[in-house]
Amino acid sequence: MTLSFFDQFMSPTWLGIPLMALALTLPWLLFPTPSDRWLNNRLLTLQNWFINRFTQQLFLPLSPGGHKWAVLLTSLMLFLITLNMLGLLPYTFTPTTQLSLNMGLAVPLWLATLILGMRNQPTLALGHLLPEGTPTPLIPVLIIIETISLFIRPLALGVRLTANLTAGHLLIQLIATAAFVLLPLMPTVAILTTTVLFLLTLLEVAVAMIQAYVFVLLLSLYLQENV
User: Fold this and answer.
1) CA atoms within 13 A on the CB side of 141
2) Do residues 110 and 153 touch, judged by C-beta distance below 8 A?
3) Is the pTM of this model over 0.90?
4) Which of 4, 26, 157, 169 gives 106 a disulfide partner, CB atoms 3.0 to 4.6 angstroms apart?
5) Domain extent at residue 197
6) Residue 7 domain flag
7) What is the pLDDT of residues 164-220, one digit of tens each?
8) In Å, how far are 89, 171, 180, 204 from 191, measured between CA atoms?
């Protein structure tokens, strides 16, 4: 049986039934349920502290009109972090390595911020397409460039998340395979490779959290331009 390093990115199926919906639903069961008690357990207290700090930092530069998005963006942040972290466990599937899923998250949210800006302040929203003080001969060229960069934003959001997670998973699998092959031949080199694998796994844990934060942070910046 030949091993393909890209088999781990295939959507799981059972009896021909895609399990993508199940992979997206189960992580929500891991979150502790909030209670009405004054004193909560440590896990719930840590979760509440993290949500409060994240919401405060994310929406600090936004106007009060953008605070309506707090629940949506905070939930998206927790959802992406959970999916990315669970994908680092052995024999698991990472839904966020699928470009279709990431684009399905990025395009509607980006489009919502764009429509919000066009509805509330169309002059200011269209003003981003032409910087102030632009020479007259450059106006058509700059409008085309800014329009292209505007429509590339959701593609950049989806591709960034997909590429970072896919590259990390591939690198972990390559180094793990090398350590397994080198173990009977050169044990010392295999031990060093395993050490590198452990450090890389720690780095991927950080990348999993940072990429989820960057995804939501860029959405908040797009929202800031249109609110």
Assistant:
1) 5
2) yes
3) no
4) 157
5) 16-225
6) no
7) 999 998 899 889 888 888 888 888 988 999 999 999 999 999 999 999 999 999 999
8) 21, 17, 10, 20
